[in-house]
Amino acid sequence: MVHEIKVPEVSEGVKEGIVAAIAVAVGDTVEEDQSLLELETDKAVVEIPSTHAGKVTEIKVEEGETVAIGAVIMLIESEADDTGEKEEKEEGGEEVEDGASPVKDADQDAKPAEKKKPADETKAEKEQETTEKKDVETSESPDKSKERREKERTPAEETGDEVDLKSSRRGDQVAPAAPSVRRKARELGVDIYQVDGAGPGGRISQEDVRRYVRQTMERLQAGQGSLPGTKPLPDFSRWGDIDSEPLSKIRQVTAETMSTAWASIPMVAQTGHARITAFEQFRKEFNSRADGRTKLTMTAVLVKICAAALKQFPQFNSSLDVENKQLVLKKYVHVGVAVDTPSGLLVPVLRDADKKDIETLAVELNDLAAKARERKLKPDEMEGGCFTISNLGGIGRDLFTPIVLPPQVAILGVARGRHEPVWNGQDFVPELILPLTLTYDHRVIDGADGARFMQWICQAIEYPLQLVMRG
Amino acid sequence: MSGKQPRVEKTDLVVIGAGPGGYTAAFRAAELGLSVTLIDPEENPGGVCLYRGCIPSKALLHAAALIGEAAEADKIGLTFATPQIDIDRMREWKEGIIAKLTAALGSKVDKLKIDHIRGLATFKDSRTLTVRTAKGDEQEVVFDQAILATGSRPISLPGLEISGGRIIDSTGALELADIPKSLLVVGGGYIGLELGSVYAALGSEVAVVEMTDGLLPGCDRDLVSQLKRRLDKRFVAIMTGSRVTEVKEQKNGVKVTIEGKKGSETKSYDKVLVAIGRMPNSANLGLENTGIKTTEKGFVEVDGQMRTAEGHIFAIGDLAGEPMLAHKAYAEAYVAAEAAAGLKSLFDPRAIPAVVFTDPEIAWCGLTETEAGEQGIRVKTAKLPWRGNGRNLSLGREDGMTKLIVDPETDRLLGMAVVGPGAGELIAEGVLALEMAAVSEDLRKAIHPHPTLSETIQDAARGYDGSK
Fold it and tell me: Could A63 and B411 be called an inter-chain contact, meaning their C-beta atoms sit closer than 8 Å?
């Protein structure tokens, strides 16, 4: 059936208009209410909609022509008879398509989560939509454009953290951010297409870019700090009664530091044994004359020996700067000592241990240990350590492997001295033996150096005269 | 010195071609501290834009506009005598503008200590250029990086070769050799319509023949129809959907057969202007001696930093793809020069404005209504005819329209188009709005000066939602 499309009354008092643009051509299929042409009147440019669905068979006007209200502008042949047939086809399609209704598929396609379908599958669906569900296609057009934009986005995603300077983007594929903001993002290494804009219409500001950087950094740091134990915990109460208590600050810091050390430092443990029979004799005699404060401990002596060793082996008094590819060598010798306190492990630091005599070191160490137990240590008294000694001799019977305290590169673990038979060339003689473990960062220190360092310390303990002779 | 061994010069960056893209890239790179060599056959930079494009055509269009306005002034009670046209003085004036602008560029080359070689370059390999200099000798330039900016040239068709006599291209038309009694413009694109308008104003009987169904293919029809209404009065004939089938250059005219909707017709014209498009100058550069890739149409393929398949060689401007516009070349020149200097630059414009300098002018940027339809992007449009604009009426005009294209979901501006006097100036606001990702509310709330044509942008934006 052929319908005449006439110029409707567009507004009061308007008798004619100029055809500004013709939106369709002869042969086009049009929907009802689809815009056919634009009419420019004295008051406005108005769109003339089609009153029927069908095929344009004739256009009676030209662009620029003046037409009166009521004039016939187009002829449209409707496909009224075909409609029923079309609907039947649609239902038939439903059956052959593995029971998947095209309507359902179209719905799924509209969901963003469903967009990562294999290309051919999506294509097949598209074809279904276009051939069978015209109305769905029209309402879907905004989604299509989004999908298209998303596709353009993939190259940037593939390059990961790198900003994409390769693919060409133009027009509506460009992120809604001012050129200055886009430049800033590039300089910061931010893919602006990943940034959500908080401004009107999703506009991205410099602040949005900064927030994105901040959030990314936080996410990365959180990921690093919780490397072990990130798995969700089971419900322990299933197997019996439990209690939970909040982690103390000391415990939190210890957990974080140790996780970082364990995850980032390849460590080697080197054991050693020093004969301390003579040394212990001297210490006992010395302490019989000393009071609580001046009491000489094994640890105080080891601080002095390690300080001397650090002067001898400067790579043990260093820190690795991975980012700048350099080794930071320290010209000072501050030695940390692990102290067991009721609230957790603390490591006060003895400054310039190489320049102080053992008596002074002993006093300082006793003071610091007392302060640590009373939780009176100031933060700066626990900073700047170059090397750490962890003496478990008071409790532990045997060797253990301490963990390097970053950014230091080595730590000395001390166990309890014990009597062992030692072959002196003729006989087995009883000797007091101190078991030691040196754990070091293998990125900085080679195995041979580790062995030499341990050897040097053992000799220094056994032949203290050497220490004096070497200053 | 027999000259068997060509002189070899070394440079950080060589720029080939000194049009808008080339000279801008050379200047920017020199400012960023690179040692730059610029190769171009002309004495001073300028390229097509200055010597035979944008600038001379706008000079002549200004003359055309004066003639047109003087004639139209009659209806507001101002009657001028028919103007006397001294074509020699007009040509001199036009040449003067070109000389002034190109000389200024020449002195900037000296000031920035850019090594300017007059000549034509071809690639010997991907690190070496052979340059045939204007003096006739040959030399070699060894470079670390290169920027290609060799531009484009008018297309000619078989059977319609540019003779330089009666069959001319845009270059010939801009020379303004004479005012032909009748002129057939082949091609209804912006070049044909602009130059056709010039000659029509100067007194030629101008006819236009266009192969497709409308003028300015690709441009939204509602804009074109306003222009066509005016051109219908200026031109003796506008034949769309028509093809030139035969051309015979004769002693006193060109006999042209045109096949149109209503059959074939043969007519004689004094001159024929061929303006059917432009093609990139990529053929004689020796690109085959490098790894540089080109498209089917001859454009050099580039990435977002304007790098070719040879990462140290860039291509910009008309050579690097559509749209072939000087302001696109400027922008690409900055990107390439900065990338060459190691900066993280990127060519990612949200909008490249296009302007047709006819009367009325047509200008647009961003998404067009036509593209939205083709790509299935849902948009809202607001169109404001200029009939109610006081400034327009006071200019003695009634035509003109401002169109905004907005994303219905975000209210963000996606495109803008203007037809009317001064449209080319007004479109800049649309470009800024697009680059800043403005929403229609921003345009609505920005106070526009009264009484001006720019108010039509604000008024069009008010058409969306007055509540915000």
Answer: no
Cβ neighbours of B221 (radius 10 Å): 21
Candidates A34, A40, A149, partner chain B, best to mutate (most B CBs within 10 A): A40
Kindly tell me the number of DSSP H helices and DSSP E strands found in chain A: 12, 19
With CB atoms and an 8 Å threshold, state whether A63 touches B228.
yes
**B435 in contact with chain A, both atoms CB, cutoff 8 A:** yes
pLDDT digit string, tens, across residues A323-370: 888 999 999 999 999 998 887 888 999 999 999 998 899 999 999 998
Is the pLDDT assigned to residue A433 strictly greater than 80?
Answer: yes
Contact present, A154 and A166 (Cβ < 8 Å): no
CB atoms within 10 A of CB A167: 17
Q: Is residue B144 within 8 Å of residue B13, measured between CB atoms?
A: yes
* Interface pTM, i.e. ipTM: 0.82
The reported pLDDT for the residue numbered A227 is 45
Positions of A marked active-site? 386, 442, 446
Q: Which B residues, 372 through 411, put their C-beta within 8 Å of a C-beta on chain A?
A: 375-378, 383, 385, 387, 401, 407-411
CB–CB contact B378 A142 (8 Å): yes
pLDDT value at A83 more than 90: no
Q: Residue B449: helix, strand or coil by DSSP?
A: coil
CB within 8 Å: B344 and A187? yes
**Tokens 């499309």 correspond to what residue?**
A5
Instruction: Work out the burial of residue B372: count CB atoms within 10 Å of its CB; fewer than 13 is exposed, 13-18 middle, 19 or more buried.
Output: buried
Residue among B230, B270, B248, B263 nearest B360 (CA): B230
- Which H or E run includes B36? strand B36-40
